[in-house]
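Teaching assistant here, posting this on the class forum so everyone can see the example we discussed in section. The complex has two components, and the goal was to see what a joint structure prediction looks like when all of them are supplied at once.
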Amino acid sequence: MLRKSLVTLLVVVMLAALVPASALAQDSVTIRFYNFSSDPDHVEDLQTIIDAFEAENPNITIEVSSAPFADYFTLLEADLVGGDAPDVFELNFESFVSYAANDVLLDLTPYVSGDAPYYPRALEAFQSDGAQYALPESFSTVLLFFNKDLFDQAGIDYPTAEWTWDDAMTAAQAIRALGDDVWGIYSPIQFWEFYKKAAQNNCAFFNADMTESTLNSPECVTALETMVSFVNEDVMPDQTELAGVANEELFLQGKLGMDVIGIWQFAAFADAPFAWDIQLEPGAAQKAHHFFANGVAVSADSEHPEEAAAWAQFLTSSEIAATVRIDAGWELPAIDVPEYVAAYLEQTPPDNREAVFEALESPVTPPVIERQTEMQDDLNQLLTAVEMGELDPQSALDTAKEQIDGLLQ
Amino acid sequence: MAGNHGIHKWKWVIFFLSPSLIGLLVFMVGPLLYSLRLTLYDWNLLSDPVYVGLDNFKDLYHDAEFWASFKHTLTYIAIYTPSVLALALGVSLLLNRPLRGVAFFRAVSFVPVVSSWVVVSLMWKWIFNPRYGLLNYALAQIGITGPNWLFDPDTALYAIIIAGIWKDIGFITVMFLSGLQGIDESYYEAAKIDGAQMLQRLRHITLPLLTPTTFFALIISLINSFQVFEQAWLMPEDYARTGTSVVVEQIVNYAFRYNRMGYAAAMSWVLFAAIFAITIVQIRLQKRWVHYDL
């Protein structure tokens, strides 16, 4: 008897566990939003933007999930595959292409008005086959940071906007001569820096119809030779010489004359115990600067496309979103409204903050293919082998061409 | 009547086993079969899987990177397994003696086992650092210029193996300790009366009676080292990765970095086949050297 009631109890407990929490009827619409750019430093800033949006749209609630960049795409893809896609999610430019190609994004063209204040270049970056598959949210660029004190000690002039890499080499050698543990310059030898320096040299990654890589052309080889010459001339530390010390750290320690690094370092360098400034990156045949962009996309499966698109628009182009980003020293909004950035330009250091916007006159976006990560990994391996002197630039890029051709098939 | 009673009993057995049986089916057998099916598809997670037959296996056969990672895994096993077994045996023999404070040393030897690989790899990265690391400093004191360890693709794998051995000795030691404590004292007393020296007692009593434990430890460490991952993922500097990529690392990369699920599934099944084959061989060979009694 006792046993029977025990079994009944067990069955009841097991059944109870199977009943899903009853879905309550909701008056308002909930929009699920995934992002990586607020994690970990700007979660509160994002919340400020969300609060402002919800105040304007009382019927919409934004449910936000943040993950660091390294984990973000695993989270996003798991939910997309599981049929549980968030309504709105962030994408970086490089991954945007394969998402757009796989039909998981809603065409936002009808939601973008002609007078949207986006930078045209930024808006174009998130178009595919004539459709607007995401809205540009923010951008950043990479510039030449330099330690004024070290330049003064070496008795040389500060970098100018007209510099080429030859000028940088001369300055780097003068600074390197200051001491055994003082380095002239750091400009990493990896995919991101290479595609930009390739563009400065008129080197194209692919032929016009993207069927074949042209990475072993003389222009590309010259670009790589210039990059690695700084290591060969011993004015730039290689991986072993850095031995796990980040180049940002080296710069902050005052042991690095020039650092080619992103504007997201402004806050970290603000309290440096020496004077520093920024300048446009040196060029070669022409100038070229990174245009790293994040966009906001709406899932093709969203049940509330109108509300989702409204949030995407607010997040990318509203005044409050723009000013929160600028005040917090977050990434810059990709909108062309000079009043919003006035406050940004007033902050120092660096004194030459205008360079951030001057760089936008010569933007390059990374070459992108569907099998992007594989291309980057393969190329990075070869570039490091060149840096460590195990491969010469020509044979490394010959191999790269073969590997990338394989990925294009 | 008896048969009826038997069926009645089995009903209850299955009823009470059902929670874990269902779990096993849903979370183990299901995904296993699903991944086997996936090996026949090309799937990037975002669009629908495309049937490609055995193409994944054909590509794998020609994938030099995969076979390099297989070779690294085998090198890992070839050095790691004998070292960890021999060292663990030595430690367990020491810890099996009635020493003062033996409980403390037993506990200390187990600390690396319970530490997370993230912590352990940070510590070893520091020890192996060519510029300020402990190891090259010590080597410099005796006039040897140490290698670049985790920065050099030629030495990074050995650095990882050293860390792996260090971390796992404690685990195998505990197995050996329990094996040693299962050996009846009377064997040793009899041997002493017959005048057997310490080494003779080790060779003729301890080692043979320990073979069942050794066999188990061997199988466990072989399977573990085939699946070596964390240390190879966490420790080497980017540049040295060409020299350290292991099979599981390739699987993770292809599944979650390159979004090629079918290809990664094919890799997993090749790895499974290798572990399965080696384990069968081990079990076959055990008759030749494992003694379950004297």
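For the discussion questions: The interface with chain B takes residues 14, 74, 77, 80-81, 98-99, 102-104, 239-240, 243-244, 371, 373-374, 377, 380-381, 384-385, 387-388 of chain A (CB under 8 Å). The radius of gyration of chain A is 25 Å. Think about how each of these relates to the inputs above.
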